[in-house]
Amino acid sequence: MKKKILIVDDDPDIRLVLERQLKKEGYETVSASDGDSGLEAVRRENPNLIILDLMLPKMTGYKVCESIKSSDKYKKIPVIMFTGKEEFMAEELGKSFGADIYLKKTLNQDEVISAAKKLLE
User: d(Cα 21, Cα 67) in Å, to the nearest integer?
Assistant: First the structure.
């Protein structure tokens, strides 16, 4: 059975690139474009991994991550917090909300794919 990865990002181009690359690696993908629908997708899809943007409409990635990690049912789902924010404090904050890995957005998505593989092993 294929591992399912939820991508929560408000940028449709980033979602598309990640979906294509993850599908090429043999993963099933689902996506959401804001924090509320991301949290709803976690409940509906029960993914094996979540790639979560930090700056999202309706609910921030921090809040989504905190909701996931404070739930007995979903807290074991690994979360990659994926953001364009460069500040060191953003990384520390992301980890304090329960993110397993914190990555900065770049044009090269290989880092995200290898982090996903590592967390799904």
Answer: 27
Each residue's pLDDT tens digit, 26-64: 999 999 999 999 999 999 999 999 999 988 999 988 899
Mean pLDDT of the chain: 86
| DSSP string for 72-112 | TTTTTS-EEEEES---HHHHHHHHHTT-SEEEE--S-THHH
Element (H, E) at 30: strand 28-32
Question: What b/e string do you get for 60-90 counting C-beta neighbours within 10 Å, with b at 16 or more?
Answer: bbbebbbbbbeeeebeebbbbbbbebeeeeb
Locate 10 and state its tokens. 């408000």
Q: Domain spanning 4-120 has what CATH number? A: 3.40.50.2300
Token pair of 119, please? 């967390």
Cβ count near 115 (within 10 Å): 19
